[in-house]
Design brief:
heterodimer; A: MetI-like fold; 14 helices; 75% helix; globular; B: mainly alpha; MetI-like fold; 2 strands
């Protein structure tokens, strides 16, 4: 009995250690963001701030003081936040509409070359981004479509769609066909069956897929850097980094930037954690 | 035409209807994925003029230039270090975390939920977080080592020392992705029926034997998928390295994706060379995937 208790204590200790590794860096960033610079430059730093302050958040979000993002004079984090919000929301909307129609067709209906098209879509997920970025850059530059909000959304939709279709098809495949057959017999069209029966039944899957699409667009950096580099309409990702480099030595300030950029995705992930965990692991168990 | 389309919509199983649902997505994907893929192939054998106008066919010159460039080879070596480091450490962290959370401890669901924090953090924010932790003058890592009495003064430049920089970047990447690995492996662990362990225990199998003959083989398919995803993803990793080291110090962390970006978009505006290099990366990814799926098949049979 004693030996068992000892084992349990060891397991708990190891779990605590693992969680410190997982959460430590982020918690430290939050602590840094509410510290005064002197507390962090102390040796060793004050792990718990003696005078916590929200000054940095005021500077960045309410634009108190002169901390503006350096890329463009009129650019500011709230503005970048808004751009990221708009871009990510529209991307998610388009992905969900186009994705659910396609996934339904791939899961339930029959047409010529279905498996070919499906593998084409599936395979495109494994492509290195740079292969596509170079020709797209040249084409878009010729068409004078660089540095446009719509262009970035279009790019995000196309790069997110394959994953969305694949994930949604997995969800649709799990739903027994009898449910919609009943609706079809009652005179429902396939589209009606999709919207009235299939989509409501797999709404947890839809939530997960929507969040993946949103987070993907919100967190994306490479394309935003290349295609939106010369405007004030940079996304929060790009702005946060430029900002972080400009104020490299002001640790509390850049930590605040990191917290602001990561707050929406982290919050979403925690609120919808059940759906996300299920969505993430659905693929693993199928393979 | 319209009439037949309308009719096809009312018939549940019409192929035209089925295809029309897929068509918009396919169009988007064809324009933005298949077309650039083809264009990139053409670019690899040519030269683009000023202001993106014109195209001159120059044969395999781009490829020759790339293959004989020692910086490219250096980047591939760095990429190898990076991919291997990330993949190995991620599997270890994921397996360790999953085994711990698979025990019947209290608060398991809370731990699992909190795992999503690093997973959700944007790569750029991840960069900033570790930029501040690794800061040589005021960073938390030197602070922690100082606090614990391991170092006497702040003298470790984590990101500025060539031999340490790659390891530092690898650890930052592993931090972000270990929750994903943990969750995947945990799900696979939970799908193993308890009866198997029960039977093995009755037969006198110890904890190590149970792990070796039940857990590991049943975990293998998941581990193999994870490794493949890690390989392909880390081959493309850009944001974190851009944020933390910009390929430096020297070229110590210049992975191939970063090198291509630098050559094409930042330094030389060499689109042909960039396209050639990116096709080499594409070729490597495809080879990895193919070799891998074959190896995975044999491995599954052997266990």
């Amino acid at each position: 009995m004693k030996k068992k208790n000892f084992g349990r204590i060891i397991i708990y200790l190891l779990i605590v250690l693992f969680m410190v590794w997982i959460l430590g860096p982020y918690i430290w960033t939050i602590i840094s963001s509410i510290s005064l610079p002197v507390e962090l430059t102390a040796k060793p730093p004050h792990w718990i701030p003696r005078k916590p302050t929200l000054e940095n958040y005021k500077k960045l979000l309410l634009l108190v003081g002169k901390y503006r993002v350096a890329t463009a004079a009129r650019s500011s984090l709230p503005r970048n936040l808004l751009y990221s919000l708009i871009i990510s929301s529209i991307t998610t909307l388009f992905c969900m509409i186009l994705g659910s129609l396609s996934a339904y067709s791939f899961s339930r209906l029959r047409f010529r070359g279905k498996s070919f098209w499906f593998y084409l879509i599936f395979g495109s997920q494994l492509l290195p981004f740079v292969v596509l970025a170079i020709p797209l850059y040249i084409t878009l530059a010729r068409l004078r479509m660089l540095d446009k909000l719509g262009t970035l959304i279009f790019l995000y939709v196309s790069f997110t769609l394959p994953f969305v279709i694949w994930l949604m098809k997995n969800y649709f495949d799990m739903i027994p066909k009898d449910i919609e057959d009943a609706a079809l017999i009652d005179g429902c069209t396939p589209i009606g069956a999709l919207f009235r029966v299939v989509l409501p039944v797999c709404s947890p899957g839809l939530v997960a897929t929507g969040i993946f699409a949103f987070l993907g667009a919100w967190n994306e950096f490479f394309l935003a850097l290349i295609f939106m580099s010369r405007t004030q309409t940079v996304t929060l990702s790009v702005a946060t980094l430029v900002f972080g480099w400009t104020h490299k030595s002001d640790l509390p300030l850049i930590a605040t930037g990191a917290v602001i950029a990561s707050f929406p995705p982290v919050l979403l992930a925690l609120i919808f954690q059940k759906f996300i965990v299920r969505g993430l692991t659905a693929g693993a168990l199928k393979g | 035409m319209l009439q037949s389309l309308r009719e096809s919509y009312s018939k549940p199983q019409s192929p035209l209807f089925a295809f029309s649902l897929v068509f918009p997505s396919l169009l988007v994907i064809l324009i933005l994925i298949v077309y650039p893929l083809a264009y990139s192939f053409v670019l690899g054998f040519g030269k683009v003029g000023a202001n993106f106008r014109g195209y001159e066919f120059i044969g395999v010159q781009n490829y020759i230039k790339v293959i004989t460039d020692k910086f490219v080879w250096h980047s591939f070596l760095v990429t190898l270090e990076w991919v291997a480091g990330v993949t190995v450490l991620l599997q270890l962290a994921g397996l360790g975390g999953a085994l711990l959370l698979d025990t019947n401890v209290r608060g398991k669901s809370i731990f699992r939920a909190l795992l999503l924090v690093p997973w959700a953090v944007p790569p750029v924010a991840n960069g900033i977080i570790w930029l501040s932790i690794y800061n040589k003058n005021y960073g938390a890592l030197n602070g922690l080592l100082y606090q614990l009495g391991i170092i006497k003064e702040y003298n470790i430049a984590w990101l500025e020392t060539p031999s340490l920089a790659i390891l530092s970047v690898i650890i930052a990447q592993v931090w972000k992705w270990s929750p994903f690995a943990t969750l995947m492996i945990l799900a696979a662990l939970q799908s193993i029926p308890d009866e198997l362990y029960e039977v093995a225990r009755i037969d006198g199998a110890g904890i190590i034997q149970r792990f070796r003959f039940i857990t590991l083989p049943l975990l293998l398919p998941t581990l193999l998928i994870l490794i493949l995803l890690n390989l392909v993803w880390s081959l493309n990793a850009f944001g974190l390295i851009y944020a933390l080291t910009q390929g430096g110090p020297g070229n110590a962390t210049k992975v191939i994706a970063y090198h291509i970006w630098k050559q094409t978009f930042s330094a030389a505006a060499d689109f042909g060379g960039g396209a050639a290099m990116s096709y080499i990366v594409l070729f490597i990814s495809i080879m990895i995937t193919l070799l891998y799926s074959r190896a995975a098949k044999t491995a599954r049979v052997q266990f």
